[in-house]
Amino acid sequence: MLEVLVAAAIFAVGLLNMAQIFVLSGAAIFNARVQTETTTLAQEIMEEVQSKAFDEVMVGDDNPFRTRLPSEFTDYSTPGDTLAGFPLDDGEVAGDKSTFDDMDDYSNFVEDPVPFEPDYKRTVKVVYADSDSLEGPASLSRTEYKKIIVGVVSKRHEYRATFSSVAYYRGI
């Protein structure tokens, strides 16, 4: 009888350890899923922004190889104020990215990217970058570089992903 009680106690301890392993592995799998979803949402909007024209002056241009000077590029809404973002052009509607046709249209863009899932919030910031310090602070003046900063937050799961990329105007 004593042997059965000892065997049952050993079995119970082993079963509790196995249950703990299942709980921990389930949490790790869930966290990996949230990280993957967040990263995918960030990558998706980053690729969308990068697929657009560098600047409005190039949209609809019959000669896409025309050399442009930075002084021709769109300036910040308030010159020298990077927080103000860029002005929207005719036909573009704030918050409606289907109307965006160049990179800076996405500046200060915010959306809930997953329908019926308000947990995620996606933000985009576009600024001019200084060629001497591409990863540094935004340039206050127009340059041939635009830095795209994408953030995705999972509010419920307290996870944040931020990615940045630099686009370069390759004038010929």
Commentary on this structure:
This protein has one helix at 2-50, and strands spanning 109-111, 120-130, 133-138, 145-154, 159-168. It is of the alpha+beta class. It has one domain (2-168). Strands 1, 2, 3, 4 and 5 form a 5-stranded antiparallel sheet that branches. The longest helix has 49 residues, at 2-50. The chain is elongated and about 90 Å long.
| Main beta-sheet annotation | 5 strands, antiparallel
Write down the domain tally. Answer: 1
* Beta-strand content estimate: 15-25%
CA-CA gap between termini: 90 Å
Number of strands: 5
Helix count from the secondary structure assignment: 1
Q: What is the helix content? A: 25-40%
Structural class: alpha+beta
Give the overall silhouette.
elongated
For the residues shown, what is the average pLDDT? 85
Query: Topology as H/E string?
Result: HEEEEE
